[in-house]
Amino acid sequence: MAIFLITKSEHLECLRLIFAHRMCTINTFTRYHAFFNIDLSTSTLKLHEPTLLNYWLAGFIDAEGCFRIKILSNNTIKLIFELSQNDVDLITNIRNLFPSLLKNIWMDRGTSRLSFSGKSARLQLINYLNLNPLKSHKRIVVLKWIKADRILQEKGLDWKPKIKKLSENAPLRAA
Questions:
Q1: Which of 28, 32, 84, 147 stands 20 to 30 A from 45 (CA)?
Q2: Residue spans per domain, the chain
Q3: pTM greater than 0.70 (yes/no)
Q4: What's the CA angle centered on 88, arms 87 and 89, to 5 degrees?
């Protein structure tokens, strides 16, 4: 655990300005207003939609994303990305970043889950993550997931055992 202390009001003001235009979740938005004692009814700040043009989504995936290699009984291999959150609007906005996804959101006990394994969305996510790499231990999981995708695309000799080995050697369910 780490603690970050601010002792000068000008530093707090810097943080306020940094966060003011980067809030994509309703929870962060309301906490921000409460922390800085800002009246929501008079605030000019707005909730922003996620974008693929900055690191925000990578940070969110680092905290909440799940990457899996699923080997089905018929030896079919699926590379799955999942993201769960209580805020259905946020999950919908993230899904909308991937044009090939139409549905892909499931509700389960008040939690919204975005899940996909389709090639088009998967390649778009891989391109995004190559430009905006994750910063936590999950980066290793993502690199193995991307390697499995590359093996799946090339389909050279012994491609299935290579992917199976990748899935056995790494906890690809890191969440």
A1: 84
A2: 1-48, 56-169
A3: yes
A4: 90
